[in-house]
Design brief:
One of its GO terms (molecular function) is ATP binding. It comes from Halomarina salina. Keywords: ATP-binding, Nucleotide-binding, Transport. It holds the Pfam family ABC_tran. With 238 residues, the chain is α/β, with parallel strands linked by helices. The chain has one domain: 3-Layer(aba) Sandwich (Rossmann fold). Helices cover 33% and strands 25% of the residues. It is built from nine helices and ten strands. The termini are far apart. 41% of the residues are buried. The structure holds adenosine-5'-triphosphate (ATP). The site of adenosine-5'-triphosphate (ATP) has 12 residues, from strand 2 and helix 1.
Length: 238
């Protein structure tokens, strides 16, 4: 029996070190279904390692990850993806020499109708005008959108985004933020987004998880997090 709060994802007592470096340190955190949750923290606080542990790219030294109550610790990445947990990477993983449409077709969608899935997600990210263009010719921000569309081809219930706003011009930052909001409201998806700029994601997120030294310092609404003394001192340098 679970007595604690159960989210769509529950990370419990998770740890992982690299040599002597404790990258994730007894981390317990959860993400509510159909929320947009931000994960912030200074460089090296364990954000990417946490994503890699959740998505099966890395194995933990101890602890577990539950997705909708199912223990997925130790599962292969493809099996976790098929279960409904998708992610993007810090560097958008797109094939420069392929058109946008071809990029989407490389993803094995669970959708019976591949053409329909391609149309649906290309138009969802508003890149249908570029369907036959090479991905290598897109701007950095458009490549982020294409990376999100590729992840959406898997029709995940939870999507993890690793710094989608990094290096993106300000106009597209707003477009990407609006897209994430639509993923929640129109598609009922849950979003967990990493950023190291608290300002960039405060207005977008319902809650922020603050990671410091591989563990959760606090999790609360952005307005509360911004006023927290520990965050102001240790992270914002205020
Ligand atoms: N493959 C690895 N080998 C050795 N050390 C690693 C490896 N991956 C991460 N680390 C170390 O673990 C710690 C956490 O790194 P991680 O990339 O998870 O942090 P982060 O919060 O995502 O940082 P950033 O904001 O810079 O992306 C860092 O000290 C990092 O050097």
């Amino acid at each position: 029996m679970h007595t604690r709060h159960m989210g769509i994802i529950d990370v419990v007592d998770l740890s992982r070190s690299f040599g002597g470096q404790q990258a994730v340190d007894d981390l317990t955190m959860s993400v509510d279904s159909e929320s947009i949750t931000g994960m912030i923290g200074p460089n090296g606080s364990g954000k990417t390692t946490t994503f890699n542990l959740i998505t099966g790219l890395l194995q933990p030294d101890s602890g577990r990850v539950e997705f909708r109550g199912t223990d997925i610790t130790g599962w292969k990445p493809y099996r976790i993806a098929n279960e409904g947990l998708g992610r993007t990477f810090q560097q958008a993983r797109v094939f420069d020499e392929m058109t946008l449409e071809e990029n989407l077709r490389t993803v094995e969608t669970p959708d019976d109708d591949v053409d329909e899935a391609v149309d649906r997600w290309l138009s969802f990210v508003e890149l249908d005008d570029h369907r036959h263009h090479y991905a290598g010719n897109l701007s950095g921000g458009q490549q982020v959108l294409l990376g999100i569309a590729r992840t959406l081809m898997l029709d995940p219930d939870l999507i993890l985004l690793d710094e989608p706003f990094a290096g993106v011009n300000p106009g597209l930052v707003d477009d990407i933020a609006a897209l994430l909001e639509r993923l929640r409201t129109e598609e009922g998806k849950t979003v967990l987004v990493v950023d190291h700029e608290i300002d960039e994601i405060s207005s977008l997120c319902d809650e922020l998880v603050v990671l410091v030294d591989g563990h959760q310092l606090l999790k609360d609404e952005p307005s509360v997090v911004r006023e927290d003394d520990r965050v102001r001192e240790s992270y914002l340098g205020l």
